[in-house]
């Protein structure tokens, strides 16, 4: 492997392909900041079909948490993702489905997508779903998850997709919070040859959700499921009876499109709300420019539809652009760890977008499996979800991309709707480990914790000083929480929860979360959620959870648990507690380590000092810093003695 360079200039090949060269980026960025309404008005006309234009492009007052883009304009997102392409692309492939089983695949044309979505939309209508109603989607990664989302968008229902790895408790909490009356699921999902009982999880969840009147069940595996005649609907039978024509509902630009729950530093997950107009414009535009997408290319984002990356960059952005998007049901390591590369070869993938955790895992099994596949179709590679360490970047660049594909490291969040910081492939040089420069209209700044702006080359808290169309509009059912979490800390600015460095060239390097949010294998988790799950166990009196650097997962989960007086520390209980969390939240949240903690380091006012716990979990115990403010400094000695040393 060649030595790692710190900077890679834009290649001639990328320049020849790009929509946006360096001069265009500079000019467009300048206009987007100096005349945002002119800029976004033009983009909105270019990217989106509107039934009726807007009264004003932006009406934003971040201090008062009011964010409006394209007020008064009318559109339908499903129309923009499907119908408007039919005149020229009816027989082009919209979705390539690649099953968990490598012998199973399927192509769905835009015309077929239209028909599936319309039938599904008509079925929802028949079940009484109307504009503004919430629908929960808990599905495998099969085309039907996209049909379900677009069917909701078509009739103006608000979808809330719940990741298929979440447990019963997590589904229940989300269904209740949004008061969903319909749940869309499948009998089972297939992952790495294993069956996961989605319907059974939904059954257990909706047993406590009295307002759910319909559960629509797609037959994925044909596995046995319990059937409730009152609520359950067989999807295949029901849609066969529906018409393949369904007029799109005319939606206001600021009507909600979806809710997506995400973890914060405190409390239960928040229902992030995105609205129709701004979101679809931002998803479409970033998809085209960040991936330099050209018609006819095969585009593959490996995320799950249950996360924002799946929303914006498997379905909404690519379909709005009339792209061919690949939907992959399986896992990177089944049947073997060469699967991603086999799929790239099989479907001649041009653009491949994945997460650093997957790259690191595949890097660890060696180059041979990559080299067994013909990857000559690849033009561009993307990374998302966490900072990519330079070693993984280098492997991705050299071994996967053969030094022939730019890498776009894309920084963004559930709340931002789309990519905010990246190196546009034809315009901005790449620096391994660095997210790059702001997208159009995005105005990042670095603050110290008192809200003072840090100029030039510096490091601080990453904020956005202005709105962009893809910004979240509220937290579902709790506008005050929206303000407190994102806008109230530094009034007039959006606080990201991330720290960042800006270098001498004005490039941004994301340093990671500055709050108690973990990023485990690209899955976002609040330490508070894991703590709440642990204390539900009868043996647990108190728990404190921190992250530690993990070679593959990015971060691992390290828990300190104080037991009830009558409970006894044992290896069995340790294992039981890990499984308990996996059951409460989902397997991806299973703790890596649980350390028994007879006491936790607390200030005299009772606040747990996580800084100290983090250092102990990282095995960095020589620089614990000031412990004099602790109520009982001796608990720290015990925790250090008993710490779990991991490799
Ligand atoms: C982290 C995922 C560094 C960051 C799209 C952010 C990243 C959180 C990157 C959001 C990146 C995402 N470099 N860190 N390229 N992309 N993050 O809401 O900490 O699941 O705040 O959205 O992931 O995670 P979320």
What's a quick, concise take on this entry?
With 647 residues, the chain is an alpha/beta fold. 32% of the residues lie in helices and 24% in strands.
Folded structure, characterized:
Keywords: Acetylation, ATP-binding, Ligase, Magnesium, Metal-binding, Nucleotide-binding. It holds the Pfam family ACAS_N. It is a single chain. This protein is 32% helix and 24% strand. It is α/β, with parallel strands linked by helices. The strands form nine sheets. An eight-stranded mixed sheet has the order 12-11-8-6-7-14-15-26, with helices on both faces. A seven-stranded mixed sheet has the order 5-4-17-16-18-19-20, sandwiched between helices. Strands 24-23-25-27-28 form a five-stranded antiparallel sheet. Helix 6 packs across helix 7, helix 8 crosses helix 9 and helix 14 crosses helix 16. The model has no long low-confidence stretch (mean pLDDT 96).
CA radius of gyration is: 24 Å
How many helices in DSSP terms?
A: 21
The shape is globular
- Low-pLDDT windows of residues: none
The side-by-side strand order for the widest beta sheet comes to: 12-11-8-6-7-14-15-26
Number of strands: 33
Give the mean pLDDT. 96
Report the structural category: alpha/beta
Let me know the largest β-sheet: 8 strands, mixed
Bound molecules: 5'-O-[(S)-ethoxy(hydroxy)phosphoryl]adenosine
Helix content: 25-40%
Separation of the first and last Cα atoms: 25 Å
Beta-strand percentage range: 15-25%
How are the SSEs placed, and which strands pair?
Elements: H1 12-17, H2 22-34, H3 36-47, E1 56-61, E2 66-71, E3 74-75, H4 77-81, H5 86-89, E4 93-98, E5 105-109, H6 110-126, E6 134-138, H7 143-155, E7 158-161, H8 168-178, E8 182-186, E9 189-191, E10 194-196, H9 198-206, E11 214-218, E12 232-234, H10 235-240, E13 251-252, E14 256-262, E15 270-275, H11 276-290, E16 298-301, H12 308-320, E17 324-328, H13 339-347, E18 351-354, H14 356-363, H15 368-371, E19 380-384, H16 390-400, E20 407-410, E21 421-422, E22 437-438, E23 444-447, E24 453-454, E25 458-464, E26 474-475, H17 479-487, E27 494-502, E28 508-513, E29 517-520, E30 523-526, H18 527-535, E31 540-550, E32 554-563, H19 571-585, E33 593-596, H20 610-617, H21 634-641
Parallel strand pairs: 4-17, 6-7, 6-8, 7-14, 8-11, 11-12, 16-17, 16-18, 18-19, 19-20, 32-33
Antiparallel strand pairs: 1-2, 3-13, 4-5, 9-10, 14-15, 15-26, 21-22, 23-24, 23-25, 25-27, 27-28, 29-30, 31-32
Helix pairs in contact: 2-3, 6-7, 8-9, 11-12, 14-16, 18-19
The chain binds 5'-O-[(S)-ethoxy(hydroxy)phosphoryl]adenosine.
């Amino acid at each position: 492997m060649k030595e790692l360079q710190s900077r890679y200039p834009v290649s001639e090949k990328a320049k020849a392909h790009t929509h946006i060269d360096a001069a265009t980026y500079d000019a467009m960025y300048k206009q987007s900041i100096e005349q945002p309404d002119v800029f976004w008005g033009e983009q909105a006309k270019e990217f989106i079909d509107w039934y009726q234009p807007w009264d004003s492009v932006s009406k934003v007052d971040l201090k008062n948490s009011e964010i409006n883009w394209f007020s008064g304009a009318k559109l339908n997102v499903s129309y923009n993702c499907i119908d408007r392409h039919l005149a020229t692309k009816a027989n082009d492939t919209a979705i390539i489905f690649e099953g968990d089983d490598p012998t199973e695949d399927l192509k769905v044309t835009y015309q077929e997508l239209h028909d599936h979505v319309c039938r599904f939309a008509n079925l929802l209508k028949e079940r009484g779903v109307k504009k503004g109603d919430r629908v929960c989607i808990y599905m495998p990664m099969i085309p039907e998850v996209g049909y379900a989302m677009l069917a909701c968008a078509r009739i103006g229902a608000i979808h809330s997709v719940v990741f298929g790895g979440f447990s019963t408790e997590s589904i229940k909490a989300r269904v209740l919070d949004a008061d969903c009356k319909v749940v869309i699921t499948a009998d089972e999902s297939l992952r790495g040859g294993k069956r996961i009982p989605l319907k059974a999880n939904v059954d257990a969840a909706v047993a406590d959700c009295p307002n759910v009147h319909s559960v629509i069940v797609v037959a994925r595996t044909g596995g046995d499921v319990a059937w409730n005649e009152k609520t359950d609907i067989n999807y295949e039978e029901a849609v066969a009876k529906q018409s393949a024509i369904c007029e799109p509902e005319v939606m206001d630009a600021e009507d909600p499109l979806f809710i997506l729950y995400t973890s914060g530093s405190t409390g239960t997950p928040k229902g992030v709300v995105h609205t129709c107009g701004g979101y679809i414009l931002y998803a479409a535009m970033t998809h085209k420019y960040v991936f330099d997408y050209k018609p006819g290319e095969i585009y593959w984002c490996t995320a799950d539809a249950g996360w924002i990356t799946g929303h914006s960059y498997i379905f909404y952005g690519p379909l709005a652009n009339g792209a061919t998007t690949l939907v992959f049901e399986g896992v990177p390591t089944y049947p073997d760890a060469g699967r991603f590369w086999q799929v790239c070869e099989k479907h001649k993938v041009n653009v491949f977008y994945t997460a650093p955790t997957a790259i690191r895992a595949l890097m660890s099994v060696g180059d041979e499996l990559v080299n067994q596949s013909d990857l000559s179709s690849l033009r561009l590679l993307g990374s998302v979800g966490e900072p990519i360490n330079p070693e993984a970047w280098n492997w991705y660049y050299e071994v996967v991309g053969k030094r022939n594909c730019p890498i776009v490291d894309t920084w963004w969040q559930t709340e931002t709707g789309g990519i905010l910081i990246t190196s546009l492939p034809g315009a901005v040089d790449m620096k391994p480990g660095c997210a790059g420069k702001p997208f159009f209209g995005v105005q990042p700044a670095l603050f110290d914790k008192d809200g003072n702006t840090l100029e030039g080359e510096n490091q601080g808290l990453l904020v956005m000083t202005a709105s962009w169309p893809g910004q979240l509009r509220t937290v579902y059912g709790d506008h005050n929480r929206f303000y407190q979490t994102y806008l109230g800390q530094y009034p007039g600015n959006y606080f990201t929860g991330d720290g960042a460095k800006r270098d001498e060239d004005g490039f941004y390097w994301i340093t990671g979360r500055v709050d108690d949010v973990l990023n485990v294998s690209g899955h976002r988790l609040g330490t508070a959620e894991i703590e709440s799950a642990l204390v539900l166990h009868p043996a647990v009196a108190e728990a404190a959870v921190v992250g530690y650097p993990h070679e593959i997962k990015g971060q691992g989960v390290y828990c300190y648990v104080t037991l009830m007086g009558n409970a006894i520390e044992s290896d069995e209980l340790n294992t039981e507690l890990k499984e308990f969390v996996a059951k409460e939240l989902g397997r991806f949240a299973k703790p890596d380590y649980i350390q028994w903690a007879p006491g936790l380091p607390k200030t005299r006012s009772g606040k747990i000092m996580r800084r100290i716990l983090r250092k102990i979990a990282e095995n960095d115990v020589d620089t614990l810093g000031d412990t004099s403010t602790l109520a009982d400094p001796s608990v720290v000695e015990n925790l250090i003695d008993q710490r779990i040393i991991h490799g």
